[in-house]
Amino acid sequence: MALCNGDSKLEINSAEQNGSCEGAVAILDAGAQYGKVIDRRVRELCVRSEILPLETPAFAIREQGYRAVIISGGPASVYAEDAPWFDPAIFTIGKPVLGICYGMQMMNKVFGGTVHKKSVREDGVFSVGLDNTCSLFRGLQKEELVLLTHGDSVDKVADGFKVVAQSGNIIAGIANEQKKLYGTQFHPEVDLTERGMEMLRTFLFEIAGCTSNFTVENRQQVCIDEIKEKVDKSKVLVLLSGGVDSTVCTALLNKALNQDQVIAVHIDNGFMRKRESQSVEEALTKLGIKLKVVNAAHTFYNGTTTLPISDEDRTPRKRISKTLNMTTNPEEKRKIIGDTFVKVANEVIGEMNLKPEEVFLAQGTLRPDLIESASHIASGKAEVIKTHHNDTELIRKLRDEGKVIEPLKDFHKDEVRAMGRELGLPEEIVSRHPFPGPGLSIRVICAEEPYICKDFAETNNILKIITDFSASVKKPHALLQRVKSCISDEEEEKLMQITSLHSLNAFLLPIKTVGVQGDCRSYSYVCGVTSKESPHWESLMFLARLIPRMCHSINRVVYVFGSHVKEPPTDITPTFLTTGVLSTLRQADFVAHSILRESGYSGKISQMPVILTPLHFDRDPLQKQPSCRRSVVVRTFITSDFMTGIPAMPGNHIPEEVVLKMVNEIKKIPGISRVMYDLTSKPPGTTEWE
């Protein structure tokens, strides 16, 4: 079955893989978080594509018959001594080239242009000006919304190239029409670039002359054949969380193998949602899947793993981690959970008198999981954003031994849902919000002490200037000039208007969250914003896009509900993965999701993590009242590929009264100080906070 509409996973057959690449597109991987998305977008247009290492020689691209080259973004700097090597001849073999982000900077440098690290970062959606006489942008508006995520920028444009896109004073696109070389600082491959698919379509068909004749096999049959070939007559242990990924994985295994070969196990790790394990068992039993439920909460709470002696230590020496219920580092938490899953699975194998060497481990790992974990399966050069529990060192070791079955490893979330429907799974399972394998454990921000670095005071001063900009411009200040240098005239005018109309206050919160900035992992501050009047959401979203650009140490912005915060917290409530802490979050999560489900808007939101933070607001500093309460964050997230996405804007994507009802009900839970609303897109913030 040939599918070209973008709703399905495209798999090339083995005959094509082993043949020439005549007419295909070579995607050179510079380590972008979105490298696989480029591949997917090209295949959605029914053009064959192959992801190749960045160092692939130009002569190999020419001899194999590739029609065009796309170079992905990446976390490196083109001027760095350790910048990845590539063959500059890729630009002179007569093939059309589209360089994206890092790819554009490579192109500019090769032809004599310069690239510099600027004081301005751009991480998020921005309006850029386009020269729509340029072939790449023909038919588009002169202003388009695009995703930018970079710290380095083109300074001097290479000879023979012209500027064809600008974001304020920053060069966002270059072109040499004669040589068919094009560069975009922004990412046309992601959903957040509203007309990105049109740009890719123009490059592939109008500029490169590709044809949309790439036929594909039925993706379900490819997976089934792969499972049968690998497993043969062995048994497969599949760890089922009850989420769409692991359920589709199990349904595929059931279809490919005899029922007695598939051992489905649901491990309750103690971090499940309220009544989650019970509902998982009921739902899967209805599907005819025999499920063994293992209560391993105690094992997980006391789980440990081995870790490097330190981040700097490059020797094989290892240390034993703290137990999970005493661990605050999010990467260590994920590694402990991933390794404990494997240990519990091995215990299950032992209890069932199975030989470990005759049993495969199956899991519903997706392509974005591998990319964010910097797995070599997905990308050879991607930065680690977060270690996924299903891609730890132990899992990678089993994978290297050929003992892991991951039939969905080339799939994105929406494609897995499509396959689930094909397999006949009920809609309530297929359309469930994703819930991470580590569960609520990564939705508790654990901390022993506040996160306050030497830039804390200065960053707070910059935030005061931003939220009181209309008054600040009347009092010259060195930091004011820094703020002004980061924004365009149009943005300055809008900031003046917002700060004139609304009484706002922004401040750093003394905690860290994980983000993705410039294809790199960041572990940085959260900025809180509060208002004396009812929140004006459009203005708050504008500030949430602007603030991480000006303050590189911030990767997330939240709105703090309630009265104006006069004294932001500068200490924290010591927080670990204890049963009491987890019970509080479990109830907050249950309340928020019940309200969302009752409102009928559950299907409009892709995912809604509810996070517990160690922050106690509204304490009089003179009374020296200790920090003993915690605050909750609601993170509504809208995406199609989970590589990029936006927060749901109250009053637009979701009724404001639904959000306010969540806030009011969560505040009734004992021990809750305040409720916050995450205003951050991805990038610069990841979907989850850890």
Key terms:
690 residues, alpha/beta, nine-stranded mixed β-sheet, six-stranded mixed β-sheet, 21 helices, 32% helix, 21% strand, globular, disordered N terminus
Helices and strands in order:
Elements: H1 14-18, E1 25-29, H2 35-44, E2 49-53, H3 58-63, E3 68-71, E4 97-100, H4 102-110, E5 114-130, E6 143-156, E7 162-167, E8 170-176, E9 181-184, H5 196-207, H6 219-231, E10 235-239, H7 244-256, E11 262-268, H8 276-286, E12 291-295, H9 297-301, E13 306-308, E14 318-320, H10 330-351, E15 359-362, H11 367-372, H12 393-400, E16 404-405, H13 413-422, H14 427-430, H15 456-467, H16 469-472, H17 478-485, H18 489-501, E17 504-517, E18 520-531, H19 537-550, E19 554-560, H20 579-599, E20 610-613, E21 630-634, E22 637-638, E23 646-647, H21 656-667, E24 672-678
Parallel strand pairs: 1-2, 1-3, 3-4, 4-9, 10-11, 10-15, 11-12, 15-16, 18-19, 21-24
Antiparallel strand pairs: 5-6, 5-7, 7-8, 8-9, 13-14, 17-18, 19-24, 20-21, 22-23
